[in-house]
Amino acid sequence: MEHARHVFRALLLLAAVMAAISLGRGFLVPRSFGLHGPYRFDNVAEQMAVRPPRHGGAASCTPCHAANAGKRLAGAHRTVSCEICHAPLALHVADGRRSAAMPIDASFTLCARCHRKILGRPERFPQVVLEQHLREQGAQGPIQGRVCLDCHDPHSPKL
Amino acid sequence: MSKRDESVSPNRSPSAAAPAEGPSEIARRRFLATVLRLSGGAIVLLAGVPGAGGATGEAPARASGEGYDWSEHRYAYLIDTQRCIGCGSCVRACAAENGVPDGFFRTWVERYVVGLEDSHVDSPNGGKDGFPPIQASFVATKHFFVPKMCNHCRETPCIQVCPVGASYRTKDGVVMVDGERCIGCAYCVQACPYGSRFINPVTHTAEKCTWCYHRITKGLRPACVEVCPTGTRMFGDMKREDDPVRQAIEHDRVAILQGHLLTEPQCFYLNLDREVR
């Protein structure tokens, strides 16, 4: 009888510990943890909806800007998506309506990102040293302040 | 009187008590050991079985979300270094798409200037503002750009070291961080051999490329691929047989970064130079 009481006490203690663990686990471990692995599965859906896509792709510009879109597709910049030089669609359109003006960067810096001659660029890619390019083209006057857009149309840059 | 009383103080008369006490003492010891082992096992069992305490047991077979089944996709990324012109559009697009804080990068572009004698690597502001002209102090025999990002490894060191299960890999092959679980210990930042992770200075949790999971699950391409003007960056689905990226990985000579680490990157490179790590 004495021994049975020992066993009973130990089992009771064990049951209490197990209950405490499972109760604690219920509170501490998120509901979807472990459904597909040791992570919170709900986060997958959260990541899918973390924010609406901000870049719309070149096709998203065509409905309103068919002329420039068509010109771009016919020229040497056909692979250069509108959002590269302008900005993500989300900056300009919200809920299918124009929300703000699209930034237009007409600086040399914008063109230089792709076309300034630097070490690293593949040789066959068209690139210029601005001063040298202007001299070659017979430009007069100071180089300072001259930008590519003085002569080139960014939507169809070939002259 | 009883054996119980004597056993409480067995040292009182060791020689006399020992023969009588022997069996009971051993039985008790054995009993305690068994109980300890059993309870230990029970704890392991309770902690290890998914959903034993918390989850209610409804196990959705597919990822939640409207019309997207993650078991139908397995994504891969392909970078052709020969095409990259180092414009940094991808870095800017990534920052705009994902709200990446200034000075931190989910993707970046490196410039390699290599000669027989020496080599030079730079990545000013991750290539976000393009690259300035430089003069090599040695005879440069080749020079090129290499876009870098999370390799979404199949055997990730970053997930292995996460102590709270915040880092994980989805069934469609994307490694992501659960910002709600992340405690910002930065073990994963140290574990990643590619330097693809950082601790967000605002949220103080680990952050990394998600292949724009909010875009690809809607059928769009990651922002970096969307804006790449030269087709350097390509994103594909290995579960689609006619996918150009899958075709290239299947048939062309592709390389991976730091293959000796056996992380099985899912980001593949075409025309990769040996100088690139």
Would you kindly provide a written description of the structure presented here, covering whatever features stand out?
The complex is a heterodimer of chains A (159) and B (277). By secondary structure, chain A is mainly α. Chain A has six helices and two strands; from the N terminus they run ααααββαα. Chain A has a two-stranded antiparallel sheet with strand order 1-2. In chain A, a hairpin with a 2-residue loop joins strand 1 (93-94) and strand 2 (97-98). Chain B has helices spanning 3-8, 14-48, 89-98, 157-161, 187-191, 213-216, 223-227, 244-251, and strands at residues 75-80, 107-114, 119-122, 142-149, 167-169, 175-177, 198-199, 206-207, 233-237, 254-255, 267-270. In chain B, a hairpin with a 6-residue loop joins strand 7 (198-199) and strand 8. The termini of chain B are far apart. Chains A and B meet through helix 1, helix 2 and helix 5 of A and helix 2, helix 3, strand 2, strand 4 and strand 5 of B.
List the helices and strands and how they pair.
The complex is a heterodimer of chains A (159) and B (277).
Chain A: H1 2-28, H2 42-48, H3 66-74, H4 82-85, E1 93-94, E2 97-98, H5 108-115, H6 130-136
Antiparallel strand pairs in A: 1-2
Chain B: H1 3-8, H2 14-48, E1 75-80, H3 89-98, E2 107-114, E3 119-122, E4 142-149, H4 157-161, E5 167-169, E6 175-177, H5 187-191, E7 198-199, E8 206-207, H6 213-216, H7 223-227, E9 233-237, H8 244-251, E10 254-255, E11 267-270
Parallel strand pairs in B: 1-11
Antiparallel strand pairs in B: 1-9, 2-3, 2-4, 5-6, 7-8, 10-11
